[in-house]
Amino acid sequence: MATPAPPRWDRRMQQRLARGEEAALGELYDRYASLVHGLAHRVTDDDDAADQVTREVFGYIWENPDAYEPKYGSLRSWIAALTRRQAVHRLRQYEHRGPGGPDEVEARVREANAAARADFIVTSMPAPLRAALELAYRERVDYRRAAADLGVSEDEARRRLRLGLQMLSTAMEPGGRPEPPFEQHDRRGPA
Question: What is the distance of C-alpha 154 from the center of its chain?
Fold first, then answer.
């Protein structure tokens, strides 16, 4: 899992990419490729599609380094948003070719979109919250056992679980609707 980059690193990386430094793209790839591929795979449920999305996202970043706006968030968050949008776009392309009507396709897109956002939220949340959620939901322990395993009070374990769940609740977009498809010329990301 990639660690969040400090804002100064984000700005320097963007400047290096804008100058066309191939080494900068390599560093960015090394840092974020697993995040990009993991999110893309979560949405598409297909290794080949995830590989393609990964190439498209890093290709877009290379060709459009100025598309990133630091005032709107971290480079990591921007890359994750690019990935999610591109993976959903790819999923729509693949699903429209196969069986099933438009309603089934959109339901699958909504489900995949929410799952990808949830994955990103969990990987981005502070380690103490993530640890509490993993104990409670992956290990199936109650808050008392989580408190003991984490070495914190029961109240602190409950607080961490509550905050983690509140963060996860934002994974579903208002009304459960997916983001609209984006255009090739859209500065938000590749299509």
Answer: 31
Give the other-Cβ count within 10 Å of 109's Cβ: 21
Cα distance between residue 22 and residue 27, in whole Å: 9
The CA distances from residue 98 to 29, 44, 93, 102, 150, in Å, are 32, 14, 9, 11, 47
Note the pLDDT of residue 70: 82
* Closest by CA position to 143, among listed 128, 127, 130, 159: 159
Start-to-end CA span in the chain (Å): 26
Neighbours of 134 (CB within 10 A): 14
Asked if residue 116 lies in contact with residue 38, where contact means CB atoms within 8 angstroms, the answer is no
With the C-alpha atoms ordered 58, 60, 66, 68, is the resulting torsion angle positive or negative? negative
Query: In the structure encoding, which two tokens stand for residue 49, read together?
Result: 């599609």
Please say if the pLDDT value at position 97 is more than 80: no
Output the furthest CA–CA distance in the chain (Å, rounded).
53
